[in-house]
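Reviewers of the previous submission asked for a worked example of the structure-prediction workflow described in the proposal, so we include one complete record here. The input consisted solely of the amino acid sequence. No template or homolog information was supplied to the procedure at any stage.
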Amino acid sequence: MRPPPHPIVSLAKIAFHLVGTMLLPIIVGFIAALFLEVSEVADTAPALLMFAGVYLFPILVLQVIGIVRKVRLENRERRDLGTRGAASWLEVFAKHVSVVTPRGWGLLGAGVVFLVVALAVKWGDVGTVAVLALLLFYGAVGITSFLSAFLVRGFRREVERQKVFVRREMSPAVIISGEPGEERFHLSGVPVPPGYCLLIDDRLPDVLATETRHVLGAGIRSTETTVSGRIRRTPRGLYRLGPASIWYQDLLGLTHISVASVATCELKVLPRFRGLDIIEPPRSKHRTPDVVVRPHRFPTEDFFRFREYARGDDTRRIHWKLSVRAGRLQLRLPESREMSVRNVVLALDSFLPARDSLDAVGLGDVLDRLVETWISLAAELVDRGESVTLVAAADDGKGNLRIEQLSGRANRARWQDLGARVRWQAQIDLPALLADVGKDTDGVAVSARFDAPPPEPFPGQSLAWIYHPPEDALGPPEPSFWKTVVGKRGLLSWLLRLPHPVGSDENTLRARFRDLRRDNDAYNARLRLRMRVRHGAQSVLSALVARGDAVYKLQPGPMRHRIVGVSAGRTGGGL
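From that input alone, the workflow returned the following structure tokens.
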């Protein structure tokens, strides 16, 4: 769900709609009379006042009655759900006072312009056009305001009696990252008054790159109807969608009525298992092998691991090719028996300081790569025979954050489910995830943190890091904002090209500049995040190496991820 608007925004919206709807023509006409010669129409002032009293005043009364009834009804429902306060009341009032659509404001503006032109050039035909435009506008507002006083209550009463059925679902509700998904609305018995159509509208999370918008006619009352739309992107995560906004809109598109906010659903996108290419660092002199390192098997030989050559070692076991690559003599150590089973804790570090959370635009992809590496490494260690426990801070399915652990013996679909519920958070840092680690346990932390970890020592045997440096995770710098938005076609082409189907309200300049402002905010947040990385986060990798832990660098790929050794650590063990 989108966050509620600021109370000042709601107040400005209320004032704009009330003043603009009722007083704009009068204010503009009065100002025009101060500068233009209107003596020829001054005699019609009593008739105009009578027209305003007979035609405009009842419309204003009907509008106020409709708004009050709808606001009282929705506020009562919100109180039952535990939502109350001045901000909530203003949000509801602003929603229900917004009866006029962008097309309606365009008609009102055109009528006002023709009114001023008629006064300026003293052309009666233009004045007639202005009056017709204003009559059409206020007639639509009056009818809609009158109907809204009863349609909203009637709609909700029918819902309570289960005569109206609106259900929303995802098909399928659980998918793998990158697979197609579809959103469906099932409607039955929904009343649509003559001269109006039903709109279903909801803005999904930006990462899904999808907007929900459906238009239906009056025939849906007598038949069961299903409308659907494809989800354009399906990145890993748990998404709570809705409630969707239900509107009545007149056939001319001048006004609309907010009927209800209903129909919620969830979409869970599971991470994929990726192949891992583990490139080992040079071995330390310690004989304990790294947890992450794979054992190698040569033809007609047994498994081998490697360490640096020390004085007195058998020179016949030197691996010359590896020594040339490493720059130091490397010794083969044959394993005549299976390695003893280790207890390994795989921790996913999703801690992001609160100061960075507001600028974390685009960091969802970074967390996706970490989760894929996390579950893929767990699968590889389990296949080797290690005893693995996965631990992470995840959403419990109700919006609350908690530490969850899964054994490597659990179904791997449960690993994916846990990975889907992980999100960036500023509450649970890595030491809390590793607090219950035993002394005989090795740890592995998969991280892309911006700050060096707290100095608390690891309670187990050894700790290794699979680290995705933020400067690499953010990718190449974006071009300038105008190049990002306008592209190669130029500003004029951007202004003339319609991004949505012909007739959509999203094609208006107001809507397009609103989207432009939102894109600009996201672009600036991205720049602030890059500035933060450039000035503070580049030293994290050096700090991890200085701790004496084994450190690997994560290099994600489109199909497989590479884990490149940076430091074997002082103990030779690894996380």
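The radius of gyration is 32 Å. We consider this example representative of the routine output the project will generate in years two and three.
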